[in-house]
Amino acid sequence: MGKCDKGIPFKESFQRINFLYQAAYLTLTVNPQNTGLVRFYINTLKTIAQRQVLRLDPHLKRTICKRCFSLLVPGLTATIRSRRRREKHTVVTCLECGLVKRFLWRPDHQLWIDNPAAWLKMPSEVDNSTMTTTSSTPLEGAVANTSASVKDLSPHGISQKTETNSKTQESTSEINAETLNTGIS
């Protein structure tokens, strides 16, 4: 057995979290009285994130009540008010438990997830001196890096290496055909 490509870490967990959030939102919008099922979905979502040690997106966390695990949908389970005391801010109040959340309106404020400087760069996006092209996936970057280094090391480029491989394959297939013919006779 060979090694398998790991892919995106915790991909299945993120898919479950996404599904549970969408199911909770759809359940609440179709039947607003079914808040118990919505709370169960959100509680399960948070449990999965905690057990896998995953950070939830701040935009997602802003729509979930921390106290009662209710989905905060304006007009159904939450009220939204605009206030200006010291600074302009939005007040979101959960109608189930009464929890109040306040979000400031600073024009220069940006969440960490929205800030491109906080994003991690993939290995393929990092410019190396041996890489001639960048790609969107790490596998393509590794292939591009390998082919570039072969080009640099070989005086005739990749075409000579390919010709050598095709000649070897032809001679191997001829040997296999001869072995089969002699074995049958």
Automatic annotation (TrEMBL):
Q: Which residues form a coiled coil?
A: none
Its GO biological process annotations read: tRNA 5'-leader removal
Q: Which GO terms describe its molecular function?
A: endonuclease activity; hydrolase activity; metal ion binding
Keywords of the record, alphabetical order, are: Cytoplasm, Endonuclease, Hydrolase, Metal-binding, Nuclease, tRNA processing, Zinc
What's one GO-annotated cellular component? nucleolar ribonuclease P complex
Domain of life of the native organism: Eukaryota
Q: Which family does it belong to?
A: Belongs to the eukaryotic/archaeal RNase P protein component 4 family.
Put simply, this protein is called Ribonuclease P protein subunit p21 isoform X1
Tell me which species this is from: Octopus sinensis (East Asian common octopus)
Organism placement in taxonomy = Eukaryota, Metazoa, Spiralia, Lophotrochozoa, Mollusca
